[in-house]
Specification:
Elements: H1 2-36, H2 40-44, H3 58-67, H4 69-100, H5 106-118, H6 125-133, E1 135-137, E2 142-144, H7 151-158, H8 165-178, H9 182-189, H10 194-202, H11 207-223, H12 226-231, H13 238-241, E3 248-249, E4 252-253, H14 255-292
Antiparallel strand pairs: 1-2, 3-4
Helix pairs in contact: 1-14, 3-14, 4-7, 4-8, 4-11, 5-8, 8-11, 8-14, 9-10, 11-14
């Protein structure tokens, strides 16, 4: 009887803790959703605290107009998808080399990856910006301004210095270290080269981690503000468009209404990521479990 009582108390306590943590995490999100459905009249009503009296789509319409999805939506998708592909491919090659090939400086190279992962991009972003605004090429010392284009992001992705690429290399290296070496040994016996083995044997067996890294890269590029704000002055993506949504009443701005419209715009921008996660949840979970079992 005492054991059942203790078990019951522990179950209730565990439920309260989990429910409390879930509520703390979801409360801001629920608050933003309810606020987004308020009408302008609700903002002037002092009796309205959280649940709107007059549900309205006014601020959602303002958010849609401010986002300009026909332009910024496509540009954000092209940027996130293409950079995600480049980062996934480059990080897979770097991680495979660090995981499988023993060469002088292997540990030093992996330490460099860790350093890239730990150092905030704000430390070196100004130096990168100056380099891309005066990008030297050719023998004659000619220079190009590569800003307001996707080229800087492509260059960073292809050189392993893009957004969060240190983390992607770390995850992939752990995954490749968990793969049995018999796969490669069998390919070498059949006469395959290391490059052929990587493309024909390793990559087909790495679909889960490739999917995970691509999803991470796509999501981070989709929501990143630092790099687009640094390299784009005339171009606009969803992440940089959201803070520029304002509502005016006559000649003066409406800060509270503008904040609600920006929250609605942020939730609209999250919808593609939620749909993408819904379709790829199984692959994502399997990859994380597999990576955590690395030797």
């Amino acid at each position: 009887m005492e054991k059942k009582f203790v078990k019951y108390i522990w179950s209730v306590t565990r439920f309260v803790i989990v429910f409390g943590l879930a509520f703390i995490i979801l409360k801001p999100f629920i608050y933003k959703i309810l606020m987004a459905f308020m009408s302008p009249e609700d903002l002037l009503d002092s009796t309205v605290r959280l649940v709107p009296k007059n549900f309205s789509l006014y601020y959602w319409k303002v958010a849609l107009e401010g986002l300009e999805l026909d332009i910024t939506g496509w540009l954000t998708f092209i940027m996130s998808f293409s950079v995600g592909i480049f980062q996934t491919f480059v990080c897979s090659m770097i991680a495979y080399g660090l995981a499988r090939f023993k060469f002088r400086g292997n540990r030093l190279a992996f330490m460099a990856v860790i350093v890239i992962m730990l150092i905030p991009p704000q430390v070196y972003s100004i130096a990168q910006y100056l380099r891309f605004t005066n990008f030297n090429y050719g023998i004659g010392g000619s220079a190009l301004n590569l800003t307001d284009s996707l080229i800087p992001l492509y260059i960073l992705a292809l050189t392993g210095l893009g957004l969060k690429e240190g983390l992607y290399i770390y995850l992939m290296r752990s995954f490749y270290m968990s793969l049995p070496k018999d796969l490669e040994n069998a390919a070498y016996i059949d006469g395959a080269s290391p490059i052929s083995t990587f493309f024909r044997v390793i990559l087909p067996n790495s679909r889960t981690i490739l999917t995970t890294v691509f999803l991470f890269s796509f999501a981070w590029q989709w929501t990143d503000v630092s790099y687009p704000s640094l390299y784009f002055s005339e171009m606009a993506v969803l992440a940089t468009k959201i803070p520029n949504i304002y509502i005016r009443i006559g000649l003066s701005a409406d800060p509270l209404g503008s904040n609600i419209a920006q929250n609605a715009a942020g939730m609209l921008a999250m919808i593609p990521l939620l749909v993408l996660y819904g379709f790829s949840q199984k692959a994502l979970v399997n990859s994380i479990v597999r990576t955590g079992n690395a030797n």
